[in-house]
Amino acid sequence: MQAFAFSAEDLAANRQGLLTDRQRQMVANQVKLVRISSILALLSVLGSMLVFVGMAVLTEQGPIPLQAIPYLAGTGLILLGIVGTFIFIGLRRLHTLRAEKIGMTTGPIHLTTKRFKHGRWTGYYATIDAIRFQLASKQQFEALNEGIPYRIYFLNYPPTHLILSLEEIG
User: Fold this and answer.
1) How many CB atoms lie within 10 A of CB 81?
2) Cβ distance 151 to 105 under 8 Å?
3) Long-range pairs for 51-56: beta carbons < 8 A, 24 or more residues apart
4) 165-169: long-range contacts at Cβ-Cβ below 8 A with a sequence spacing of 24 or more?
5) DSSP line for 52-118
6) Which of 27, 67, 98, 127 allows an S-S link to 110, with CB 3.0 to 4.6 Å?
7) DSSP letter assigned to residue 4
């Protein structure tokens, strides 16, 4: 299946529960992307807090009133806590991806779409036995046939998992 960009070697390795070097590199790239995103999110929050405090300190109205300091600190801590929670969740999800444990599901495929941003973006999904996969493109969606049994090899990366290879069966 060209739409999914896997080779016969990838499929053969996945059948044996193994990843190819190309797939390991794909996982490493995904891990790197999530780490960079987490670092950028943290830096943006810290930078925003610095600007926020800097603006409060450097205003022409004089020093910050003492009664405002707890509110500024509380707001900063809440913002840092929210972003920190999302960073933690993202890094926790990476743990399952780095484990490189190949999952497999077999059965008839159910295809769905979902519109986002007032219909300007469409998400494409394939589901087998309550395991939902988000497809990367319309080409992948169109390469699959509704109701036909498939075997999908994937890495557990909730909520949508990472498809390694697949094959039509039956």
Assistant:
1) 10
2) yes
3) 52/76
4) 165/4, 165/6, 165/10, 165/11, 165/14, 166/1, 166/4, 166/6, 167/11, 169/106
5) HHHHHHS-TT-SPPGGGHHHHHHHHHHHHHHHHHHHHHHHHHHHHHHTT-EEEEEEE-EEEEEEETT
6) 127
7) G
Q: Is the peptide bond before 70 cis (omega within 30 degrees of 0)?
A: no
Quote the tokens at residue 35. 């780490």
List the pLDDT tens digit at each of the 170 positions of the chain: 689 989 999 999 999 999 999 999 988 988 888 888 888 888 888 888 787 777 666 666 666 677 777 887 788 788 888 888 888 877 777 777 777 789 999 999 999 999 887 778 899 999 999 899 999 999 999 999 999 999 999 998 877 788 999 999 97
What's the rounded Cα separation, in Å, for the pair 130 and 106?
Answer: 11
